[in-house]
Predict the 3D structure of the following.
Amino acid sequence: MTKRTHPILQGIQGVMIKDIPAYGNRIFYSLGFLSMIAFFMLLVSGTLMSVFGPSWWLTNIAGSYVRSVHLWATQAFVLFILLHMLVVFFTSGFKKPRRLTWMLGVLMLFVVLAETEFGYVLRGDFSSQWRSLQGADFYNGAGLGWFVNPLDYGQIYGIHIVAIPLAIVGLLGLHYLLVRVLGIAKPYRSDVKVRTVPANHKVLFVRGGRCYRTNSGAGHVLALSIHQTDDNPDCCPGGPEAYGQDAGVGV
């Protein structure tokens, strides 16, 4: 009897790369996929934080956990992108005909770094206030203060949760489309021969699952260690009301 595959899984498998060089199943060639897993975790955790607001993630244990997952997923996202780009660079994967793929990846890195900086501005602690002031000086000095104002919480909030994520989704989609069409780069030297093998999607998703569990575990530990409640007046003066849940801002 032939085992039937769920239509959703069939759809996912249909857009994934099927044939790759023999070395393509190694962990170094899974870094792009792991970056996507980290980005997915950021989208989910960021959406929850946007829905429930600063008071939730500052005073509730579940909110602290989601915020911690968001933090560690950010670190993982940037780390995987950097490692992915190093692998592509040192294996000459950026050369023709994959130059556009490489340029999109570089552009995405800078967009992601900008996104992390805007995210730090929204944390609501002393460090974020200092970053806001320094960022305002930077944009004013660059003549862009009329366009971006880190001291305007509402503007930065919109940029962080809407504008830049949409840009990342677009860049990521186009980047993967090119990878899907061109495939994983083979050795640049014509005298180096490698055989083509089927991509091991099972191993790929196992690695993605480990990435998810590691980030979730780190978020759990961090949430327990820094969780603040309104029972402690030293950490949350004024209680949850001091964090302006209705206004959607933190202090």
Q: What stands out?
A: Residues 61-90 form the longest helix (30 residues). The chain has one domain: 28-243.
